[in-house]
Specification:
Strand order of the largest sheet: 1-9-6-2-5-3-4
Radius of gyration: 19 Å
Distance between the termini: 52 Å
CATH topology: Glycerol-3-phosphate (1)-acyltransferase
Oligomer: single chain
Number of strands: 9
Number of domains: 1
Helix content: 40-55%
Largest sheet: 7 strands, mixed
Structural class: alpha/beta
CATH architecture: 3-Layer(aba) Sandwich
Strand content: 15-25%
Number of helices: 8
């Protein structure tokens, strides 16, 4: 058998350092000027459209219909496509979102902090381990944590391992969900096919039962949990995205399943 490839000396250390690096990237003067403008514009759109969305919630523990701030925190994960509807629904709960340090992340941070979220700087490519450390600390303090699981730039519908890593470290369960919209503008040129809710649209928010990841689980077990998370997120997406094409009889059957 061929000899296993090894990371060249020095590169392994460099790779590790990158995942603790949360320094802001160098931006042009134009980009720096755009950050507050985009931040205020996106916040305004969410604040304008959000109150008109009519949500129905399926499933969920501690979230949705059963939300209580006095209960222990959870780790949330969802596809980037439904970030606008999700950001509105979970506003003002003090939850902490993993947020990249690049240009998009800097204006995004302004939006979500105005909606009552905290942020942990990092992503799957830079600063992720430091971001996870911040989130673990906030979980200990009683605050929920959340990931746009295929962000910040894809591939679309491919889950990153951050939530299961944080769950192993913190011992807190994972809540997975997806939001489907009856009427929305879909940004077809974006990597995530992001949806912007149209005014007065109906929305279905579907939660899976909690996913537990025990402290001390080995790497093989962690990978299995990652694969399980991927499959559950795909199922949630399929249910939520097809919801408004179902008959009322079919929806009643789904409600009976998810709201047990």
């Amino acid at each position: 058998m061929p000899e296993q490839m090894k990371t060249p000396p020095g590169q392994e250390e460099e790779h590790l350092v990158v995942h603790y690096d949360t320094r802001l990237p160098k931006l042009t003067l134009f980009q720096r000027a755009l950050i507050p403008i985009i931040g205020w514009a996106v916040w305004f759109v969410i604040r304008l459209l959000g109150p008109t969305i009519r949500f129905e919630v399926l499933g969920g523990q501690k979230a949705g219909r059963d939300y209580r701030p006095d209960l222990p925190p959870h780790i949330y994960a969802f596809w980037h496509r439904c970030i606008i509807a999700a950001t509105w629904y979970f506003r003002n709960r003090g939850g902490v979102l993993m947020n990249t340090t690049n240009f998009d992340g800097q204006w995004t941070r302004r939006v979500i902090e105005r909606l009552g979220y905290g942020t942990a700087q990092g992503s799957s490519t830079r600063g992720g381990l430091r971001g996870l450390a911040v989130m673990a600390r906030r979980l200990e303090e009683g605050f929920d944590s959340a990931f746009t699981i295929d962000g910040p730039r894809g591939p679309r519908y491919v889950a990153k391992p951050g939530p299961v890593m944080l769950a192993r470290r913190s011992g807190r369960p994972i809540l997975l969900f997806h939001i489907g919209l009856e009427r929305a503008w879909t940004l077809k040129k974006t990597w995530d096919l992001m949806q912007i809710p149209k005014p007065y649209t109906r929305a279905i928010l579907v939660f899976a039962p909690v996913l537990e990841v025990h402290k001390g689980i080995d790497q093989e077990g962690l990978e299995k949990k990652h694969q399980e998370m991927q499959k559950i997120l795909e199922q949630l997406r399929d249910v939520a995205e097809s919801w408004f094409s179902l008959t009322e009889e079919e929806r009643q059957r789904e409600r009976a399943i998810w709201n047990r």
